[in-house]
Prior knowledge:
Layout: H1 14-26, H2 35-46, E1 60-63, E2 73-79, E3 85-92, H3 103-111, E4 115-117, E5 120-122, H4 127-133, E6 141-151, E7 157-173, H5 175-184, H6 189-208, E8 217-223, E9 226-232, H7 236-259, E10 262-266, H8 272-285, H9 295-301, H10 307-316, E11 324-328, H11 356-370, H12 376-381, H13 385-412, E12 419-427, E13 435-439, E14 445-448, E15 460-469, E16 474-479
Parallel strand pairs: 1-7, 14-16
Antiparallel strand pairs: 2-3, 3-6, 4-5, 6-7, 8-9, 10-11, 12-13, 12-15, 13-14, 15-16
Amino acid sequence: MPRRHIHVTGAAEAPLRAALRALRTELAIPEAFPPAVLAEAEAVAKAPRLPAHDATDLPFFTVDPPTSTDLDQAMHLARRSDGGYRVHYAIADVAAFVTPGSALDTEAHRRVLTLYFPDGKIPLHPTVLSEGAASLLPGEPRPALLWRIDLDAEGRRVATDVRRALVRSRAKLDYAGVQRQIDSGTAEEPVALLREIGRLREALEGERGGISLNVPEQEIVEQDHTYSLAYRAPLPADGWNAQISLLTGMAAADLMTAAGTGILRTLPTAPDGAVARLRRSAQALGVDWPHHVSYADVVRAADPTDPRHAAFLQECTTLLRGAGYTVFTDGHIPTPAVHAAVADEYTHCTAPLRRLVDRYAGELCVAAVAGDEPPEWVRAALPALPDEMAEGSRRANTVERESVDIVEAALLRERVGEIFDAYVIDVKEREPSVGTVHLDDPAVVARIAGGESRLPLGEWLRVRLAEADPGTAKVLFAPA
Length: 480
């Protein structure tokens, strides 16, 4: 499910900070790494297991938010002589640093995921690795899993290879900068091809019935020494970059299913009733959805900069719930094995610095290409991984949900009693007077309750801010 990312600057107010500290305590978030883990990380950062293959001649670049330093992926894009494309995608090789059964490995299994709070993150691995020795920082040689994926002129995959290699990124780029370079025509070919390949892959996504939800993110905006919430619509470059990761995840799934052992990211198809309900919401929001047009096509046509479409996209996330991880061994491929949003078999393998399962998926793919049996430490860990990832995801989702509530409450607490315009984007079936509203200004998505009649799903409603308390992470609106 797409996440409601939110960021708070260092000048955020004290009640917000206190509430975030309390949330960490309540959820027993493991902030500090044990001394043995830190000592091991310092040691392996100086002496990783380096690969024999040297690919430092390829001028890789990374595309990430400007302040990110935990860089999992670097790419190089090129044309092939037959009119197709070659994608080189380097993924940080965490296994070059983390030994199975070590203190680092045990701690990673305890944490499972990097957790993102508005005022900072709780990393999966010590920062000496995740933001240092293992990160694909520019100018530094790094061990990586190097994917080489050849595409035809339509962007279809025709060949896949992955091996360990030493790589070196040449440039750390951000989404806005990449978008400016491409739009102005000043991008060098490896960067300019991101749009070309990204659009081809988006077209193929539409052809197979897949969807990518470009849900606007919530951001803190500082103006005249005060703070407010606003939405940031994703740039096209965000989507093109995501297509490279999706391409790799689909290629990895194919390698694992062919080898007979792996772990897939799966998502069930949305039930008809949920789609029908979304159609009613689209109608009320004024989002055009002809009867002959599929849900996926409507989502692709939605404009995240349009407030009505943004509210619709936020509601669409309800159809993407229920994702999980499915392990298979000895050739027994699960049914169904498809991720409904990708509309194909898919796995997570491109963010091992921030997500535990990716390290294992990468090892399975390297073994599959080499024609080797998976390492025993990988096979031994597979049965427990789905439950570990599910528990880690629940914790991450709770952190995200509660953090957003805290930020919204902190920024609204002086406005209790005020009236706002909102869309009703969700109504509880068993409690039709309770639901969720989406405000344009400020950029808030929050609970509504307290009325005596059924909430008008998908319609405008005047609402009154009834509660805003960062100490309880609660924002509550009522019909005005």
